[in-house]
Amino acid sequence: MTISVKVMARPGPEKTSYLRAALSGMALTFRHMINPAKVTQQYPEEQTDLHPRWRGTHRMEVHADGRPKCVACGLCPTVCPANCIRLVGGEDDQGNRYPVVYEIDEFRCIFCGMCQEVCPVEAIHVGQHFENAEYKRDRFVYDLDRLMEQDHPVTNLWDPSDPRSE
Amino acid sequence: MEALHPITGIPALVAMVLKILVFFTILLLVIAYTTLAERRVAAWIQDRIGPNRVGPFGLLQPIADGIKNILKEETLPATSAKLYFLLGPVLTVGPALVLFAVIPFAAPLPTPWGVVDMVVADVPIGILYILAISSLAVYGIVLGGWASNNKYAFLGGLRASAQMVSYEVALGLSVVAVLMLAGNVTLTQVIWQQQQLHLWFVLPLSLAFIFFITSAFAESNRLPFDMPEAESELVTGYHTEYSAMSYAMYMMGEFGHMATASALMATLFFGGWDLPGAWDNAFWYQGQLISGFAADGSAILAHPAVWKTLVTFAAFGLKTAFFLLVYIWVRWTLPRFRYDQVMSLGWKVLLPTALGYVMIMAASMLVLDELGVRYGLLYGLALTAVSLICTVAFVFFFDRGRTITGAGAQPGQKVEIKSISRPASVPAAD
């Protein structure tokens, strides 16, 4: 086995100058110091533009009369790889199925978006939203009412006919 | 017109207490706000904005930091030498604060009770006091490093002792040139002599200023000489084991040293509180406050005023703030030296050159005195010419790859091994 060692070609002692190099470095940092263009994003005031395919906090779509669009088919808890959705379905007088219990544990969720992808009635969505900090752990289990209250834009999932979301 | 006499009696005591209170409050504020300035300037240099959340423009950040440091838990490592561990920060911050006592910070202030000198203690030993007290700071660092019983802290303390002792020599020698030209070690006298020379000492003693600023950086353990801290090598060196307020005291010591060194650079080389022109000159000469001498040698009386005191105080503050900015600016520009480079720069370059420079300047002053040149602008310009030649020669001869070079740039040390052959298969050890 042979190890190759690369020896850098450096200028000899007669050509190097610490003072000259230090002063040119100082000039460079001074130019940056007085340059008003900064890269900092002042977060709470300046919000990030989220990508259209950003997958964040869930949201349940509702009908015009305020009922959830969910038909309690059970596809999303089945497909969920993190097993974070709890669904108990029910049936009303007209035979329409509806969710009695619908809970998503945002701590266990890995935000893969497969629940949105699998939903036959486009009820559950992942959304373009990430500011969901809480003071208590149990506040991270979102129930049906809380999911229906969310009003952030929902995620545009990948569309094979429009692969770049244009 | 009121009589110009130094303040005496009870008013003098009151004035002294007031000066101490006001000046040390300002000093502590300066130290606190230098920490903020360091973070803001660092951010600007890196194209960021920096802390701006606490108060307007982040101006309350140092107060928030202080509260945080006081409320945090003070850790005391079980295997440390407890007494010395606690003594270290105290020994570092104490000297850094009392150093300021001898630095004059404004022109004398006239009051109804007499003229008040704007210096806390105008001791006749001036610079010697500063050299003596600033040497004490190394004890705090070495004690803290040793008492932590931590190998990184120990290495940091070891490096601190070697570095600070080495650069004290160069610092002292660069100050010797100033003392020769001023003819005195009292700092008020140093400022007065700069006013008499009509030149700030940075011009006639340019090379001494370069040595002084280099050694002062090394003395206050700032980049590019922060060997004792050296985060990437020694965690944080001597204060690795410190937390909360004792850590903050080490930081206060470092920033206090920066402030003192900046004030000293302003005082020794940039005229202290002096501004161009003779209007602000003031010095006690045979019981009279004079602003200079007429052509026939008689004294011209000075006219101190409150506005002159305020303007000169602002000038002193600006000069000190400028050097503090240079400290910060250099820190966020230059990378750290290698340890052997620090030592060879101190002993092989600064020490002999400073010695030679002191001899050359002493000879020049002797020649000028023998020629009968009066102490004034001509005297200063002649010295400026000599010093300029010395500076150019220093830069030309010592900065050509001799001062600091990478290991690869020195032909004798160059690693020439291009490839290393090893046996194709190494028998496995059973």
List the SSEs and their pairings.
The complex is a heterodimer of chains A (166) and B (430).
Chain A: E1 2-4, H1 18-34, E2 56-60, H2 75-79, E3 85-91, E4 97-105, H3 114-118, E5 124-127, E6 141-142, H4 144-149
Antiparallel strand pairs in A: 2-5, 3-4, 4-6
Chain B: H1 9-45, H2 61-71, H3 82-98, E1 109-111, E2 114-116, H4 126-147, H5 151-182, H6 187-197, H7 206-219, H8 231-234, H9 244-269, E3 283-285, E4 288-293, E5 299-301, H10 306-331, H11 339-371, H12 377-398, E6 419-421
Antiparallel strand pairs in B: 1-2, 3-4, 4-5
* Residues in helices of chain A, as a percent range: 10-25%
Question: Describe the biggest sheet of chain A?
Answer: 3 strands, antiparallel
In terms of DSSP E residues, the strand content of chain A is 15-25%
Report the strand count of chain A: 6
- Uncertain runs of chain A are none
Structural class of chain B: mainly alpha
Give the uncertain stretches of chain B in residue-range form.
none
Output the helix-strand order of chain A: EHEHEEHEEH
Tally of helical segments of chain B: 12
What is the helix tally of chain A?
A: 4
Radius of gyration of chain A: 27 Å
Overall pLDDT metric of chain A? 85
Query: Which architecture name of the domain at 56-149 in chain A does CATH use?
Result: 2-Layer Sandwich
CATH topology of the domain at 56-149 in chain A: Alpha-Beta Plaits
